[in-house]
Each structure stands twice: as structure tokens, then as C-alpha cells.
Design goal:
By secondary structure, the protein is α+β, with helices and mostly antiparallel strands. Helices cover about 30% and strands about 20% of the residues. Helix 3 (about 90-100) runs antiparallel to helix 4 (about 105-125).
């Protein structure tokens, strides 16, 4: 029997290109354990195309350098091609800044609201959300 391919939910703002374009996968985890079934369940994951994430990315990048709490490794800058582990206390800073972000476009406001709602909901049960770049 063939394995059923998991479908990661997507949050789209304005992206209208091909489906396999680069973006970011957000993964909610506990204790930094990427090997748990929790990490591999699509309800703990979200995909955003790079183009759509541009309005949020500067706020995320401003939080670096960060220390990976599970390995102690320092990440000097955001890596669009690899994992960016961000612990809950940093996400709360990012969320506060996004809540204050002046947005004129109602569609963008809804996109940011949906993103922050997803992050807040996942942080109820996770201590870290990792941004995996697919560039």
C-alpha cells in the first residue's frame, strides 16, 4: 500500500504562481524534538510562499542572532534555506510587533491576522516554532 502524502496547510496573501515555489514551512514543536510524531502531523505545520511572507520577514529577521534552545547553537542570521528555531518568548515579541504593524491594505491585514492567530494557537501547546526555509 502506498503511503499517503501529507498535505501541509497553506496561508496565501497574494501569491498566484506555481504551486511548488519556494517558501517557508512553520512547524510547532515541543522541546525542540523534530523527530516526534507531533512534528510530522500536518495540523502543526503551515506553509507560506516567500513572496507573501515578505511583509513579516523583517520583523522575524530583527530577532537574530538567536540561540537554538535544543542545541545551544547560535544562529547569527535568518537562513532562508534551512531551519530557524524560534522559541515561544521570541514569538511573543514578534507577535507584539505584528499587532502594532501599520497596515493599510485590508487583505494584508487579514493575512497577518490569520498568521498571528495560527502562531498564538500553536504556542498554546508548543514551546518553539521552527521556520524551515525552502529556498
Amino acid at each position: 500500500m502506498a503511503k499517503k502524502k501529507r498535505k501541509i496547510p497553506q496561508l496565501i496573501y497574494q501569491y498566484d504562481g506555481v504551486q511548488n515555489s519556494p517558501g517557508y514551512i512553520f512547524v510547532a514543536v515541543n522541546g525542540g524534538d523534530m523527530d516526534t510524531p507531533y512534528h510530522n502531523q500536518s495540523e502543526y505545520m503551515l506553509f507560506i510562499y516567500s513572496e507573501d511572507f515578505e511583509c513579516i520577514l523583517p520583523i522575524v529577521k530583527a530577532q537574530f542572532p538567536l540561540v537554538d534552545p535544543s542545541t545551544g547553537e547560535t544562529h547569527d542570521r535568518f537562513d532562508p534555506c534551512w531551519d530557524n528555531p524560534i522559541e515561544a518568548k521570541i514569538w511573543h515579541i514578534i507577535l507584539a510587533e505584528l499587532d502594532q504593524l501599520p497596515v493599510q491594505d485590508e487583505e494584508q491585514r487579514q493575512f497577518i491576522f490569520q498568521f498571528t492567530t495560527w502562531i498564538r494557537t500553536k504556542l498554546e501547546n508548543a514551546d518553539m516554532i521552527i521556520i524551515e526555509g525552502t529556498l
